[in-house]
Design brief:
The complex is a heterodimer of chains A (335) and B (76).
Chain A: E1 4-13, E2 17-20, H1 21-28, H2 33-40, E3 44-47, H3 54-69, E4 78-82, H4 93-101, E5 108-112, H5 118-131, E6 137-144, H6 155-158, E7 164-173, E8 182-185, E9 193-196, H7 206-211, E10 222-225, H8 227-248, E11 258-261, H9 266-276, H10 297-307, E12 316-323, E13 327-334
Chain B: H1 3-13, H2 36-50, H3 56-61, H4 65-75
Classes of the chains: A alpha/beta (335), B mainly alpha (76).
């Protein structure tokens, strides 16, 4: 008998500090608060505390996962830690996290350094680990702190992104909860959304630190986004991916109860719905008080949609994420 | 496909632009309150209405509504 897998539980953690549109207007004075909302659909985002990094948010989200869902952490036999901001070049953050969470030593632990499509990419790995009959309970952590690589004067990015961590438990099941995946990659778009001066290829140097001395040095690097190219890529690839996901899972677009896309920005979500002729009510949007939280965006949206009653038992939910890389992936979840 | 229709569609999408303001010679970057948002709207509109993908690098070279219309016609 073949083994299936399903998402058992999701919890997420948002840092305490809130950055409102009023705050941004007061600080930068370029766009009025309501204009910011009109452009990206965000009123407020959360920002990491001093010294707080992605794995701290992931850790707290996992503590919440264990508490809120009564999960016995002894049962976890694989840990996937997904982020664009690892603790170190070595060791893997997943190894540190195994110890920090007090998980067994007899588990696998690996990093998945992916961004916007990190959750769906990680979920595909989790499904493969389970359905190949090798593991039973996978903890997938997705956490990012985009605020750490955004220049304080960069309104386009500051109004969009927020920091967050999420933890998802994926388990072996009789219920066919996670469908076939479609994945895509186009590395020729790597320069369109990139964190400059962030690692081995172009390390931070004295000149960079001097240039950014007034804003603390931008020591983690600086995110640059060509908004037009990223938008054009999304409009081109996402509808194709959605059609492929539906075909691969032998369904019809009308079978889908809810579409949960990467919460890139509200304008993209709206335009994707229009292009695919999907009822906008069926395209979930929870950006208003969290913004675009990179790899944490899809699990946060799934958790919120379930809480809102937008996802009920028996529903078929198409998830699709896309962005930095370019990398994109998605599947259909059966609740 | 006629340019008048194309202009009408642009005016509908640009919420803050009054009907009758745009003409084929209008340099769309000189529209009052022009912002990067308008560029996204142009890309979206052309994709949705004409099935043509305009890349950011294409849009940079285009200045007037006539040139934009010609680009759409050539690529549709």
């Amino acid at each position: 008998m073949s083994i299936s897998s399903e998402i058992k539980a999701i919890s997420y953690y948002l840092p305490d500090k809130r950055l409102t549109n009023d705050d941004l207007y007061e600080e930068l004075g370029t766009l009025q608060p309501d204009e910011i909302y009109k452009r990206v659909g965000v009123r407020e985002r959360r920002i990491r505390g001093n010294g707080e990094i992605g794995s701290d948010l992931a850790f707290k989200s996992s503590q919440l996962l264990f508490e809120e869902h009564g999960i016995n952490k002894e049962e976890i036999d694989f840990l996937l830690f997904c982020t664009e901001g690892l603790d170190y070049k070595g060791p893997a953050t997943a190894c540190i996290m195994q110890d920090r969470l007090g998980l067994r030593n007899s588990i696998g632990a690996m990093d998945v350094p992916m961004g916007c499509a990190g959750f769906t990419n990680g979920l595909m790995v989790a499904k493969a680990l389970i359905e190949s009959g090798q593991f039973n309970n996978i903890l997938l952590q997705t956490a990012d702190i985009p605020s750490s690589v955004i220049h304080p004067n960069d309104m386009d990015l500051r109004m969009l992104f927020g920091d967050a961590g999420a933890s998802t438990l994926i388990s072996a099941s009789d219920h066919y909860g996670i469908g076939h995946f479609v994945m895509g990659t186009d590395g020729s778009g790597s320069e369109k959304l990139i964190v400059r001066k962030s690692n081995t290829r172009t390390p931070v140097d004295v000149e960079w630190l001097k240039e950014h001395a007034d804003v603390g040095g931008m020591v983690f690097g600086r995110m640059e986004m060509d908004g037009l190219e990223v938008f054009s890529f999304s409009m081109r690839e996402v509808p194709q991916m959605v059609n492929q996901i539906i075909a691969k899972n032998e369904m019809d677009i009308n079978d889908i109860d809810l579409f949960v896309f990467h919460q890139a920005n509200a304008f993209i979500l709206k335009m994707l719905a229009r292009k695919m002729k999907i009822d906008p009510e069926k395209v979930y949007n929870c950006m208003e008080y969290v913004g675009n939280t990179v790899s944490a965006s899809v699990p946060i949206a799934l958790a919120m949609a379930k809480k809102d009653g937008k996802i009920k038992k028996g529903d078929k939910v198409l998830i699709a994420a896309f962005g930095i890389g370019f990398s994109w992936s998605g599947t259909i979840l059966r609740y | 496909m006629v340019i008048e229709e194309f202009i009408k569609k642009l005016e509908t999408e640009f919420e803050d632009v009054q009907p009758g303001v745009l003409n084929p010679k209008t340099n769309f970057r000189e529209i009052d309150d022009w912002s990067s948002m308008y560029a996204l709207i142009i890309i979206a509109l052309i994709d949705l209405e004409y099935g043509v993908t305009v890349k950011g690098e294409d849009l940079i070279k285009i200045e007037t509504i006539q040139e934009l219309f010609d680009f759409v016609k050539e690529n549709s």
